[in-house]
Amino acid sequence: MREGDLPGRVHVERLPDGGEHRTGIWISNQKARRDKLHPAQLAALADLGVQWAQ
User: pTM (2 decimals)?
Assistant: First the structure.
């Protein structure tokens, strides 16, 4: 099940300086490794509305 408003795995953010960040991959990695995240990191994601971090 996909998160409601989170970008998909292939989403790439274009940065003002011309660089890019693979946001979708980052979110996917956080979800896959959520059991290794610090409680403060999970709380920060939960505050942003990420359901699997709650």
Answer: 0.67
Q: Please give the angle made by the CA atoms of 11, 51 and 13, to the nearest 5 degrees.
A: 15
Closest C-alpha among 45, 48, 47 to residue 31: 45
pLDDT of 17 strictly over 80: yes
Task: Enumerate the H helices of the chain as residue ranges.
Answer: 23-32, 39-47
**Rounded to an integer, what distance in angstroms lies between the CA atom of residue 24 and that of residue 4?**
13
Q: Which secondary structure element, helix H or strand E, spans residue 21, and what is its range?
A: strand 20-21
Closest CA to 8 of 19, 16, 22, 20: 22
